[in-house]
Amino acid sequence: MARVFVYGTLKKGQPNYKHMINTAKGLAKFQGRGRTVEKYPLVIAGKYNIPYMLNIPGTGHHVAGEIYSVDDQMLQFLDEFEGCPDMYQRTLMSIEVVEWEGKGGAGEARAAAEGIMECFVYSTTTYPPEWVGLPYHDSYDSSGKHGLSYVLRESR
């Protein structure tokens, strides 16, 4: 099992969460909520209002999201879904645990108790330069006050 931190449309209550709970795509077990240890710019960009975490450490906000434990099948699905490695790149980042529900081995419990764990995150280094000038968010909600509702793939 691998740990994945999601900050956008794959979170609970967001437009693509259905994929996280579709066991035909693999297993994803909610472990808790967290936020990036380093600051990153989280922008909503493009004509489909997609959330992107730009891989520019030290700029932006500590981005809030959810931590999942996923099997190899789900990780492969997420790579395809996120357009990895072209649109997003899957990299390890340090995530601060804000709230932990996970049940796992002693190592996992210790990591959660210490408050920081390494998780795969889909961020991007392949973005138009003007995205750096977009508003930065610390948390994503498709129906947030930004007014930029995500456009589902099936509606494009």
UniProtKB/TrEMBL annotation:
EC number: 4.3.2.8
Active site, UniProt feature: E82 (proton acceptor)
UniProt-listed Pfam families: GGACT
Record domain Gamma-glutamylcyclotransferase AIG2-like: where: 4-105
An example Gene Ontology biological process: modified amino acid catabolic process
GO molecular function: gamma-glutamylaminecyclotransferase activity; transferase activity
Catalyzed reactions per annotation: epsilon-(gamma-L-glutamyl)-L-lysine = 5-oxo-L-proline + L-lysine
Gene Ontology cellular-component terms listed: cytosol
InterPro entries: AIG2-like_dom (IPR009288), GGACT (IPR039126), GGCT-like (IPR013024), GGCT-like_sf (IPR036568)
Record keywords, A-Z: Lyase, Transferase
Signal peptide range: none
Family that this chain belongs to: Belongs to the gamma-glutamylcyclotransferase family.
PANTHER family associated with the record: GAMMA-GLUTAMYLAMINECYCLOTRANSFERASE, TROPONIN C-AKIN-1 PROTEIN
Protein's job: Catalyzes the formation of 5-oxo-L-proline from L-gamma-glutamyl-L-epsilon-lysine.
Protein name: Gamma-glutamylaminecyclotransferase
Organism: Thalassarche chlororhynchos
Higher taxonomy: Eukaryota, Metazoa, Chordata, Craniata, Vertebrata
Gene encoding the protein: Ggact
